[in-house]
Specification:
alpha+beta, Alpha-Beta Plaits, 3-stranded antiparallel β-sheet, two-stranded antiparallel ribbon, 5 strands
């Protein structure tokens, strides 16, 4: 196998002083000094969040403050990194919300595993899980980034509900209307 030797030209006197490189760097610096600043003073200034941004998944409540999740576990099954863990719980028969099958006893999202894909929000039939515009998530330990049900509701807050599954009167009216059509 033949080895090709590449001859290097010797540096000129000007190149050996590095002056052309220094002048080139100073030109770039001067050009950037005249441009307006693009630095944001975070956290006082926040960047504009684009439409469709997928941030932190949280649980939301209906306008009456009731949890919307019915422990169907679809979000847990569809989650690619298995970041969601749900323990279904029963609703007591004497509860005013007994007409709803079940509610989560425990609900955890491990934010260290979450890949912000948005599949949990897409698959949720009750619109109980939403992706927030929050991009600043930090903790001092790994345990702080495993959000339990209380923390998820704290971050999520309340969203308008188009299902009204918790309203027994409306559920009874719909059932009666459905029987009337048969």
């Amino acid at each position: 196998m033949a080895v090709k030797v590449i001859e290097q030209k010797p540096l000129t006197i000007l190149e050996r002083t590095y002056l052309p490189q220094i002048v080139g760097g100073l030109k770039i610096t001067a050009r950037n000094m005249l441009k307006p600043s693009v630095t944001l003073q975070y956290p006082d200034e926040r960047p504009v969040i684009p439409a469709g941004y997928r941030g932190v998944p949280v649980l939301v409540k209906d306008p009456h403050g009731r949890e919307k999740c019915v422990s169907c576990q679809l979000c847990e099954f569809v989650c690619p990194p298995k970041a969601i863990r749900i323990t279904p719980g029963e609703i007591a028969a004497d509860s005013p919300n007994a007409h709803v099958e079940k509610a989560p006893k425990e609900f955890e999202i491990n934010m260290l595993r979450c890949i912000y894909c948005g599949l949990c929000q897409e698959v949720c039939p009750e619109e109980a899980i939403w992706l927030q515009n929050n991009y600043s998530l930090a903790g001092f330990s790994r345990e702080q980034l495993v959000h339990n049900k209380a923390r998820l509701y704290e971050l999520g807050g309340t969203l308008p509900d188009s299902h009204y599954k918790w309203d027994k009167k409306k559920a009874d009216a719909e059932a009666a209307e459905h029987e009337g059509h048969h």
